[in-house]
Amino acid sequence: MSRMRVAMVHSSFTVRGGAERYIRDLTRGLLTRGHEVAVFCRPSPHAEPVDRHVGARLSERAFRLPKLHKVVTHLADLLDPTGLRPRDLGDFAPDVVHVHNWQGLGILPVARLSRAYPTCHSVHDMAICDPNNALGNLGRSGALDALLGLRSAWIGRRLRRTLLLFSAERNRALVRRRARGGRRVPDRVVPLGVVAPGQGQRWPTGRRDTFLFLGALSPHKGIDLLLRAWEAGHAQIDGTLLIGGDGPLRAEVERVAGELPSVRYLGYLDEAGKESALRQAGWLVFPSQGHETFGLACAEALIAGRPLIASAVAAPPMASGGSTLVFDSAEDLRRLLARAAHMPDPEYQTMSASAATDGGRLDWEDHVDAVIGVYESLLAARSASPAREGFPR
């Protein structure tokens, strides 16, 4: 395996979510194998000193009206070619470009990169189908769906020289079904692995009456729904809810934690903090209200042998039915929390064993090897036919 120069391209590290952590973990994994990696992104509070910053788009500098910010941003993602340019990567001279989240950078700059360099794109969300990357706009009206279809067709044409990488067949099928022309974009399923706290060690059995939420404290992650369910049923549940994370609903989380002794807010957790929380909990609650391509917190819980309580719309693809309890509403969630807290030992042990088996398949080293294989196939395809659109599937 020859040494490669890999350019990671990502919109921003303003949010510290699963995609951002994945980029950092993958960068470290490639560096330990002797490859050179540079991360190109917009300036943000959580960027690292070695990151290489790209310029602001012309649309960002020209239109600063707060009421129009979202509209301008979404239009710029489709039409503004400024900001990120291939020459920004020139000094690094990458062999391969690996694009992550492109919203905020724009699809036209990604198309230019794919003409200049062999390029792949990890599909961390559903932005190809819907600017609300959890598919929140689809299905609202026929007219809106038609506009989203035109948008996805425009994006798809700009991605025809980019290999899309999906973490699961379910995600690929969804994009192919929802994005007009999605089947004409080259793609491949590369199952994710994860660097998780306590990976490889034997975890003690969790407490069935202790539940953990890990993630952004925002409505689309379902924390408000979880709080409603807990407030309505905490007496019947007779357990403890641990909440780790930060976000716009932090004040509401702190209010409930102040009123109910059964709710403990842990703040934003580093790796050691997450490991400690997972050791205390017997379940991970994943109440996200939109489609999730992977669910990093779910992967961490499975590795620890913690079964999941997940919303039907966001049930993670790497978790089998034996590892997951699924709900549709706040009332369903309240009943499931009470059932889980009082689940008989044999049933909980069976679910915990199933979760550990699912987690055992999420090997990080195998995933890094698979990504390197993708890079090598991109280089081979470009060398064989520099003008060819598309790559081996």
From TrEMBL:
InterPro entries: Glyco_trans_4-like_N, Glycosyltransferase_grp1. Gene3D superfamilies: Glycogen Phosphorylase B. It holds the Pfam family Glyco_trans_1_4. Keywords: Glycosyltransferase, Transferase. CDD domains: GT4_PimA-like. GO terms for molecular function: transferase activity. SUPFAM superfamilies: UDP-Glycosyltransferase/glycogen phosphorylase. Residues 17-162 form the Glycosyltransferase subfamily 4-like N-terminal domain. This is Glycosyl transferase. The lineage of its organism: Bacteria, Bacillati, Actinomycetota, Actinomycetes, Micromonosporales.
